[in-house]
Design brief:
Radius of gyration: 19 Å
Strand content: over 45%
Oligomer: single chain
Number of helices: 1
Shape: elongated
Low-confidence stretches: 1-5
Number of strands: 10
Length: 142
């Protein structure tokens, strides 16, 4: 909780699981000079819908790793997300949700919808970007 008691924070983890031999552009793509003009689609997560005051304050991405691709006549190295990539989101819940009256009643669920965008690639091609919407029910224990 914040020192002033005005909000609660929690961590939501989003895992992107890449099929074998596939990777995706990281949250901050680095395009090598040999691919000048390429407009990669960064992996991103944004709030699609949430109750008022619920927000993602920060996203901690893992470090991308080096993969070898054959997008030109010579192999190139790119920084990419591979295997299972887990992003950690710091989500802020406002006071009116955390301190809502209700006594020891049932657990309240706060709906959070996240939109994840990514562009999958293999060693020869990058495919059209995809957007997936994730429903994340946040349970508040009264």
């Amino acid at each position: 909780a914040d020192p002033g008691g005005s909000a609660e924070h929690l961590e939501v983890r989003v895992a992107i699981v890449h099929a074998r031999e596939f990777h995706s552009w990281p949250d901050e793509p680095v395009v090598p000079p040999e691919l000048r003009g390429l407009n990669p689609i960064a992996t991103s997560i944004r709030v699609a819908s949430a109750p008022a005051g619920v927000e993602v304050e920060e996203i901690e991405w893992p470090e991308p790793v080096t993969v070898t691709v054959r997008y030109t006549s010579e192999p190139l190295e790119l920084l990419s997300f591979v295997d299972t990539t887990v992003a950690r989101l710091r989500v802020r819940l406002p006071e009116h949700l955390v301190d809502a009256p209700g006594g020891a009643g049932p657990v309240d669920v706060v709906p959070l919808e996240l939109q994840v965008q990514f562009q999958s690639c293999d060693e020869e091609y990058c495919y059209p970007p995809r957007r997936e919407t994730l429903s994340v029910p946040l349970a508040l224990d009264p």
